[in-house]
């Protein structure tokens, strides 16, 4: 059975003990954000996801969305759940109070996002898309559009989408054909077909606000001729309420491997009324505000599913009796030992645990930087936080989703044959997790973003936001009783990352194919080093906390043991990655397409 | 779209050029097996799978099997396809002519098995199970049972199953409860419930022959008290034709992640008539004849799906236009370049290719040894072949299925969002491939078999069948113009394998948990070294053949380039594996179950 309880203890560890949430209140707009308040919010969120969302996860998968004559129905229960979600004010927790939001810091809201992804990934996509559209609009829309749309979107009575993909263009948006004709009233008539539009049509909200990429008549060819438009399903009337139906229509939904409860729509725009968001031909910039926010969210999806798979696997490993411990029966009173005694089951659970907790810690670090870049009073600190976030966005997206899929598959493996049948819900995790490696830019595209944009930006300035703290930490803890043995292997892996960075900077400058050939392994190497750094830091905190009076030593000891496991068993991948990277592009690019 | 053409050129390379099929005719019973005959058989098989089986793969997945009142219906078209398959004589190709089979060597039949797995994995399971049951019966059943059942099973008009699992026991068969009561006529009355029985009930054959594990009344507890029984669905009448319905009934089928066209049945035995196969309480031995054969077949399933995913990905990568080559447009006449120009797509395709062709070569080596152990006149050669097969069985099963799932997922990734929707069939490969890591002993169990049984057997004798030829090859080719640069990295990886073997032998002897902790990574390390050895040997053959007059140099050059890619990019994993292994069990086993 799908087992999930929000890991509140670990979340508190990451937020309060590792990343120091007590300093959040010093940032702009957060004066009331205390650890106690945060804990109360997290506990309420935990109730919501366990009582309202998780119970609909398997049934939503089985039932899926249905399409009929342009109307999309979400699975039974989704509507009520969404109402509860909106009425609880959850939709606006991360939004600006100016538009009715609660203005909570990312450090907190990202944890709630994780809970939602664990409990019901398909459901979470609806508000997730709305939030992405909110981000793009709040940064780029003219004030009048903001005033008309944002309050409804923050409230959650209107939802949002992101309409990029067309049948012939996904990654390469320069090819897109949807056009926008200027109208005398200053609006635009949008015409074209979009596919793969998550939440493009559904029955959860009274209106849907599409952000649509399209070309103006005088647009230059390619990616520099794309503009962004806001196209609502219903045109708001003078009273601000949904009025006339706009010329946008859902013409079908996709049958997918997973996330069945999320509608993936084919959308047809037929002279639909839209308004320009941002400057003409600068649509990609505006879209990237949304995209960057979404990419971090997709990373969170990987972590969320990975955590749910882990908890479900642990529950089964504790209760399934099969075989005896290799070192002698652990429960001679039972017909067999629970499978958690077997080393290979341990290996599986520890792997999942080490990746999940490592990713949660890293996500917390990124969230803190999201807060700093938005709210710090110090421009230097804001800039460093921006650098760091820009650098880590592709890593979080690709690494977390690769690991989320891996963890879902590992969790299923613990169940054996029982994992492959539908009843236990483990195979749903595998199917659901798989999409996250693809959408919002495939993980290969993330890797290219890292080596092609983030690495060379400002002659490597972004890197410093990561390299400096890691290097300082390693240097400072070589002789630390608990952390010393961990920073040894971390230092080696970090050395490989530095070598790989130099390799790409040098070779990639002369030949972009060399950078491309190294990209995926480089992103992974960066990721495993980043997780290693998080584990070393977590071990340090745990070592300090465990000796405090009344400390929960079992929790801290588990942290330290898992840190050791990470260094022992998972970080060695770094050697393989550097080995592969330094081989260069030669054999990878040797074949003529006809030879495949 | 699912694209699949049997890779006949590569199969001929493996069979004729790499493993020397011209010597097959020197083995017992194979005097007529010439390379020309083999090619003709493979071409006919290729027709069968592309014309009859592949067209039913996607539709079989969509429709699935249906259950009603004990009756299971296979998807539309399966019955006709099965009839064509049986009428073509394909069911008995690997069986003994004594029972009506064609007695083709494994070197040939395993390639046909691969084709079937590529074309339609779910369909292939029906004859696959029959063959496994055939193997067990032909080795262990009394002559009278053989005479009554084998001709029908070889012909394919009766099919077979393997009834092991019960709700509370899968891996740990010692817990099983199904009982067998001796009857006055020498038969047994079998009573109990089995689950996860592939092909347990269906509409393809007029009878189904279940091999059932059960306990005799005087059975010792645990695994040493299990006997094997043959329990047909219909009791054969005096005329040998299916007569009275036996007390065995399908009570339901599972809804699974994939292989929807294969029925996975809950079976109820209610005093069903059965006959003992092999000795009382020695059922596991008989079952293992079947299981070992099945484990190799499941490995083939991984390879089969991996190959189909590869071909489908290549087809899409050649035709999908998106973006421009990093080094400048390759097709300025087109709106964009085909995605095969991008390094990361290359990396993906080369990875799939290197694993598939490497696995095919390794499977060919194992097949040759299957033939030798059965047909060599030299007892020493037979014993070495047996050692080698015993050693490689868990490796082939686990490595090939891990890689098959990886390749299916990589193939899907090439399609981006189009891979996640059902239309292109790529997500089916992922769902279908996943089961192979689980059934016939999870891959973790394979790893335990390798370190716990195969490594220590006869104080390491099995290992020699692999280590000696690899070592000899490396030593002999250090200065070879083409192979020399490949055996360098191979030698390093092989060194890591030797160290890991010593580590496990030493530590595992004192503490079985240490062997268990190393098992999965050790199997993988063994596997990647074995593939590396295959690639070095293939490169050698290619280097020799490419200079022959009229040689297909494009093919041989691609072989050599792929060998380089394997050493450059995939073999480096060995370093990470050895790094993980040598860390030992300490951090893996540190947590108390309550700490998870």
Automatic annotation (TrEMBL), chains A, B:
Name of a matching Pfam family: Acyl-CoA_dh_C
Q: Tell me the keywords, alphabetical order.
A: FAD, Flavoprotein, Oxidoreductase
Per its record, what are the GO molecular function terms?
flavin adenine dinucleotide binding; oxidoreductase activity, acting on the CH-CH group of donors
Q: What class of enzyme is it?
A: oxidoreductase
* Top-level division of the source organism's lineage: Bacteria
Sequence ranges assigned to domain Acetyl-CoA dehydrogenase-like C-terminal in this UniProt record: 472-592
**The reaction(s) this protein catalyses:** 3-(methylsulfanyl)propanoyl-CoA + oxidized [electron-transfer flavoprotein] + H(+) = 3-(methylsulfanyl)acryloyl-CoA + reduced [electron-transfer flavoprotein]
Q: What's the cofactor?
A: FAD
- What's the EC number here? 1.3.99.41
What residues does the Acyl-CoA dehydrogenase/oxidase N-terminal domain cover? 40-156
Q: Where is the Acyl-CoA dehydrogenase/oxidase C-terminal domain?
A: 282-450
Name the protein family.
Belongs to the acyl-CoA dehydrogenase family.
What is the documented function of this protein? Involved in the assimilation of dimethylsulphoniopropionate (DMSP), an important compound in the fixation of carbon in marine phytoplankton, by mediating the conversion of 3-(methylthio)propanoyl-CoA (MMPA-CoA) to 3-(methylthio)acryloyl-CoA (MTA-CoA).
Official protein name in the record? 3-methylmercaptopropionyl-CoA dehydrogenase
Q: Give the organism, scientific name.
A: Aquabacter spiritensis
């Amino acid at each position: 059975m799908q087992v999930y309880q929000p890991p509140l203890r670990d979340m508190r560890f990451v937020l309060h003990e590792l990343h120091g949430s007590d300093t959040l209140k010093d940032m702009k707009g957060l004066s009331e954000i205390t650890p106690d308040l945060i804990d109360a919010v997290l506990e309420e969120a935990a109730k919501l996801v366990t009582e309202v969302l998780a119970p609909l996860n398997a049934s939503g998968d089985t039932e899926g969305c249905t399409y009929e004559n342009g109307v999309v129905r979400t699975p039974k229960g989704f509507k009520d759940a969404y109402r509860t979600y909106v009425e609880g004010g959850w939709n606006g927790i991360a939004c600006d109070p100016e538009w009715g939001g609660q203005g909570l810091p990312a450090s907190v809201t990202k944890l709630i996002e994780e809970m939602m992804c664990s409990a019901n990934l398909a459901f979470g996509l609806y508000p997730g898309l709305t939030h992405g559209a909110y981000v793009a609009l709040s940064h780029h829309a003219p004030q009048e559009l903001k005033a008309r749309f944002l309050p409804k979107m923050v409230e959650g009575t209107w939802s949002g989408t992101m309409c990029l993909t067309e049948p012939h263009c996904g990654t390469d948006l320069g090819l897109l054909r949807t056009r926008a004709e200027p109208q005398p009233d200053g609006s635009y008539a949008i015409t074209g077909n979009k596919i793969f539009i998550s939440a493009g049509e559904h029955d959860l909200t009274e209106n849907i606000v599409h952000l649509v990429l399209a070309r103006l008549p005088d647009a230059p060819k390619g990616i520099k001729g794309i503009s962004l438009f806001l196209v609502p399903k219903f045109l708001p009337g003078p009273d601000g309420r949904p009025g006339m139906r706009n010329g946008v229509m859902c013409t079908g939904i996709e049958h997918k491997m997973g996330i069945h409860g999320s509608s993936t729509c084919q959308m047809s725009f037929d002279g639909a009324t839209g308004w320009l968001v941002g400057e003409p031909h600068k649509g990609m910039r505006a879209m990237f505000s949304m995209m960057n926010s979404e990419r971090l969210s997709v990373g969170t999806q990987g972590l969320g599913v990975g955590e749910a798979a882990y908890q479900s696997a642990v529950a089964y490993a504790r209760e399934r009796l099969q075989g005896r411990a290799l070192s002698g029966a652990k429960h001679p009173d039972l017909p067999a030992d629970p499978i958690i005694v077997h080393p290979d089951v341990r290996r599986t659970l520890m792997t999942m645990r080490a990746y999940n907790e490592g990713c949660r810690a890293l996500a917390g670090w990124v969230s803190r930087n999201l807060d700093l870049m938005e709210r710090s009073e110090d421009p230097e600190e804001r800039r460093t936080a921006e650098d760091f976030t820009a650098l880590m966005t592709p890593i979080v997206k690709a690494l977390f989703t690769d690991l989320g899929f891996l963890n879902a598959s590992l969790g299923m493996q613990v169940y054996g044959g029982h994992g492959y049948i539908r009843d236990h819900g483990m195979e749903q995790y595998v199917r659901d997790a798989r999409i996250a490696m693809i959408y919002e830019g495939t993980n290969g595209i993330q890797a290219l973003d890292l080596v092609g944009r983030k690495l060379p930006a400002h002659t490597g300035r972004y890197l410093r936001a990561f390299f400096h703290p890691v290097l300082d930490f390693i240097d400072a803890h070589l002789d630390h009783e608990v952390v010393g043995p961990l920073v040894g292997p971390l230092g080696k892996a970090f050395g490989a990352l530095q070598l790989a960075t130099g390799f790409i900077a040098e070779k990639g400058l002369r030949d972009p194919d060399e950078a491309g050939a190294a990209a995926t392994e480089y992103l992974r190497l960066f990721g495993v080093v980043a997780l290693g750094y998080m584990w070393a830091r977590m071990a340090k905190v745990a070592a300090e906390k465990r000796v405090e009076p009344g400390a929960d030593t079992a929790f801290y000891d588990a942290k330290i043991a898992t840190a050791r496991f990470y260094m022992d068993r998972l970080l060695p991948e770094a050697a393989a990655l550097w080995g592969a990277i330094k081989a260069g592009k030669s054999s990878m690019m040797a074949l003529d397409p006809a030879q495949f």
